[in-house]
C-alpha cells in the first residue's frame, strides 16, 4: 500500500511534466494541424534558460528562496516564449499554405538546429546543479517503508495545476481564447470575421513555449541534470501523451501525460523496468486501435 | 599543392596510391570516443591525452622519423555512429586508432578496422567480447570486465555478506557485461542478490526503480553503467530516503560523477586500475599536464599511454604497417609508457591487470 502510494507520487510528478509539454504539441496541432517536432527542443531551451538564470542569481548550491525560484521560472518563460515566437516566424510562417509536409520537415530541421545550437553554445557535457529545493515530508511509514513526498514533487504538481488552470481560463474565458478557438474550428472563416489569424498562431506558439519552459524549469529542479539532448526523449514521450489523450484536445494532453507517467512508473514498479517503454507504447497502440482519435479527441468530421 | 597534383595523377593513372602516399608526409593517427553526449567528459579525457601524447612524440622527432597527424572523431557512444567514424578513419588510412570509449562502440568499430587494416588500441573498453571476438587488430590497455567483476563481486561477497544487494545495469555492452560478471563472481562466492534489474539509459527519472529498491530494503546498489545514470540513481535514492552504498565500475572515474551527485555521492565505491597518476613512470607527464592546469584523471593517461605504446611498437617493427605493428605488440613487449611496463596476451589484453577499489569522499576519489 505504502509502496503503491510512493509509486503514485513518482508517477504523477513525472506525468505532470509530460503533460505540460504535451499541451504545446496539442495546441499547435489544434490550430494549424501540424506536429511541431521542435517543441521538445524548446522545452530543452527552457531548461537551459532556467539553469542560466539560476546561476546568474547565485543559486546552484543549497536551497533557493521562493522569490528566486519565481524569478527563474518567469525568466525561463519569457526567454523561451521568445524562442517559440521566433521558431514560428522563421520556420513555419513562410511555409504556410505550402504543401502539408513542408512545415513538418521544417520542424525537424528546427529541432536539429536548436539541439546543435545549444550544444555549440553550452557544450556537450551534462550540466548539473545542486538540489535547489531540498527536503520533503514522510507521509506514512509501514513495515519500515517510508513514503517520501519531496517538496519539489509538491511544487511540480502545484505549479503544473496552477499553470494549467490559468491556461484553461485564458482559452475559455478571454476574447483571445475565443479567437484561438475560432481559428481552431475554421481558420478561413475566422479570418473573414476579422481575426488576425497570423497573430493568433504566433500567440499559440508563444504560450506553448512558455508552458514548455515551465516544464523545463520543473525538470531542472527535480532532476538537477540537463544536457542539450533531453528534448528528444521528453518530446517523444510528450508527443505520445498528446496522441494518447487525443491530439487537439487540451485536457486530453494532460490526461495522456499523466497516464504515460503512471504506466511507466507502475510497470517499473511491479514488472521489469526494462520494458516500461514497451508497456507505454503498447497501451498507446491498443488505445489507437480501439479509439482512433485518442481518449478525449473529437472525431474528425469531413466537411462537404 | 604539389601533393595534391601527385595524388590526382596517381589516382588517374591507377597507380598503387596507398603504398606511395603512406611513405610521404605525416603518419595519420586517430583518437575516437564520445566527444558529445552524456559520456562527453570521458571523451574529453581521451582527447586531452591523445593530443598531449602526439605533441610530445612530435616534439621528440616523431615516429620513424615522420611527424604524427592526429584526428579526433566523435562517436557519441552510439554504435552506428562508431561504425561510420570507423569507415571514415579507415578511408583516411590512419595507422592506429586509440579508442573507442564505450564497449558498445569499440566492438562494431573493430570489425571495420580489422577489414581495412587499421590497428585499434582502446584505453577504456572493458567488455571481454572486444578482444575475445576481435580480430588481429584489437588491443586494450585497460582490464576486462570479467577481471573487474571478480574484484567487485568478491568484495561484496566478503565484506557485505549480510547486506541486501541490488544489481542494476543499463543493457549496454559494457554495463550488462560488467553487472553479469560481478553477479557471477558474487554468486560463486555464495552471495545472492536481492534484486537484479535493467534500467533505460538516457532518462532522468529513476524514481520508480529507486522506490522498488526501497521496498526491497536494499543496502548496496551495484551498477553496471555510466556515470550520468549512476549519479542520478544514487541522488534520487538519497532524496527518497534510501541510504544505500553505490558500487560501480571504471565508468564512474570522473569528477563529473560528483558534480551530479553532490553530497549524495559520499562513500560511493568503484573499481578501477590503480591510479596511473601515482606511478613514477608518469611523474614527468603528470607534471606537464598540471602545469597547464589539467588534471590527468580517469582515461587521460590511458590514452596517452596507448599512443606511446603504439609509437614504441612501430619503432621496433620499423614500420607503421598495422599488421606488423600488431605482431610486434604481441611478441616483443614489454612496452614502457606512462602506464609502466605493459605486455599483451595473444588476444590483445594486458597481461597484468590490477583492479583496486576507489572511494568518493568530499568530492574527490582516492584508492581505498
Overview of this protein structure:
The complex is a heterodimer of chains A (304) and B (368). Chain A has 304 residues and is mostly helical. Chain A is 71% helix and 6% strand. Chain A has a two-stranded antiparallel sheet. Chain B has 368 residues and is α/β, with parallel strands linked by helices. Chain B folds into two domains: 2-143 and 278-354, Rossmann fold; 146-274 and 356-367, Rossmann fold. Chain B has helices at residues 2-13, 17-22, 40-59, 79-91, 103-116, 129-132, 145-159, 173-188, 207-215, 227-239, 255-261, 283-291, 300-317, 322-331, and strands spanning 27-33, 68-74, 96-99, 119-122, 138-140, 165-169, 195-198, 220-224, 245-248, 269-273, 335-337, 340-342, 355-361, 364-367. In chain B, the strands form three sheets. In chain B, strands 7-6-8-9-10-13-14 form a seven-stranded mixed β-sheet. Chain B has a five-stranded parallel β-sheet with strand order 2-1-3-4-5, sandwiched between helices. In chain B, strand 3 (96-99), helix 5 (103-116) and strand 4 form a beta-alpha-beta unit. In chain B, helix 9 packs across helix 10. Chain B is elongated, with a radius of gyration of 21 Å.
